Amino acid sequence: MNGRLSALDESFLAVESATAHMHVGWAARFRPPDGESAPRFAELRDHIAGRLSRAPRFRQRLAPVPLGLNTPIWVDDERFDVNRHVIASRSRRLDELVDSCMSQKMRRDLPLWQICIADQLDDGRIGLVGKAHHCMVDGIAAVELGSLLLDPSPDPPAAESDRWRPGRIPGPGRRLVGGILDRLMEEASLARSAALLARSPGRVREFAEQARRAGGAVAQAMRPAQPRAPVNQPITAARHLAWFDRRFADLRRIGKAFEVSVNDVLLAVSAGGIRRFVRDSGAAAAPLKTMVPVNLRDDEGVSELGNRISFVFIDLPCDEPDPVRRLRDVHLEMSERK
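Below the sequence we write its predicted structure tokens.
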């Protein structure tokens, strides 16, 4: 199961820095079955290891193309060791576990995922945090990883025997030739597309309209983000988990009442929260440029790894005091951007 990073996937590698980690993650707490003791770390690690055959990408690492002539490819990690990826933690609280796991940048020479487990939280539950680099999975696929690790029933069938052996890794010369050939095929495909456009005036007009809209989107994306203070301050590598509980049914009911999506409701609530934060800091509230991911997966591709997303840039109406108008403004701008 080899493959080449897409341009979008590679961009998540390119923008990563010592303080801006480009992994996505999820956290969960599990209550032991009634009347039974909680499984310990070793048992949980072996449970996860026994299911890695369901996700071959998680035993692969990146191999660069010499001279950077194309994006890296995925190859089997010939030194794969589950103990490098399933890590025990002595944290007693879930937020401590999240902070320690998500604050660590992952090594590029290993498969780009990790699961941190605290098997003795103060509340008697088990804490688990999973993370994977954004070049490997988007948010939807990260959730799919969780489904690979969990069984749908208390008595699942026995795990299949896993006799995985790493495949042969292409040498630098082969990766170089493959990268050049793939690049030539991409350019040939672009040339064919241009020829088809030239023979179809209707398609030319359609392409021109798409280019006009794309140009507007790029201009919006390149516009500097304001304000700078108290948001958009320099950051460190440390991450800290904070959360606010709200029943999903409440968000869905609000969206239905105003004929908007749940995402619109979340963005409007976020705008209200930022507005309060800025005003409590003594600054004047202003619109906040925000990058919003948009899922592009269809029903057939829901289980595929890799990124199937795009982004839209909107101005959160943090300067609007009325919550209903904030919701309307968010909905209108999201509809226009999409």
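Residues 172-222 form one domain.
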